[in-house]
Design a protein that fits this description.
Number of strands: 5
Structural class: alpha/beta
Largest sheet: 5 strands, parallel
Shape: globular
Oligomer: single chain
Helix content: 25-40%
Order of helices and strands: EHEHEHEHEH
Length: 146
């Protein structure tokens, strides 16, 4: 639950259906009530965040889980746009990607990612990392009001 007693709104920007399924299952097993919204590319992620077009009635996310390698607009560009937008920059963005490249890690933090996590390849590892995200970002951290 968020500070208003409602389920936490999570936006997952991920183009890999298998990773979407793993994330969904891991969040369902968690202890925090949440609504997971999924978009498959960076253009859709920004439309969702800005509540444009088909996403006009969608809620503002409390947390964004962002893959770096997506079609149409990659996660680096999405991260940069989020963190330079006065209306969006306070939304925490956790980069969740398969890349372990130091360049991607450095660039993500230079673009003001709140965290960078490498996706595990097995379900138990994936479950563990999503639980840690849930525990930290949705339980421990206090966020400013919208």
């Amino acid at each position: 639950m968020n500070d208003h007693g409602e389920p936490v709104e999570i936006l997952l920007a991920e183009d890999n259906p298998g990773d979407v399924t793993l994330t969904r299952k891991a969040l369902e097993r968690g202890s925090i009530s949440n609504n997971l919204h999924v978009v498959g590319d960076g253009v859709e992620a920004l439309s969702f965040l800005r509540q444009e077009g088909e996403y006009a009635d969608e809620p503002r996310p409390d947390l964004v889980l962002l893959d770096l390698n997506m079609p149409r607009k990659d996660g680096r560009d999405v991260l940069e746009e989020i963190k330079t937008d006065d209306d969006l920059r306070r939304i925490p963005v956790v980069v969740m990607t398969s890349s372990e490249a130091e360049e991607d890690i450095v660039q993500s933090y230079d673009l003001h990612a709140n965290a960078y996590l490498t996706k595990p390849i097995d379900f138990d590892g994936f479950l563990d990392i999503v639980k840690r995200i849930e525990d930290f970002w949705l339980t421990v951290v206090r966020m400013p009001p919208e």
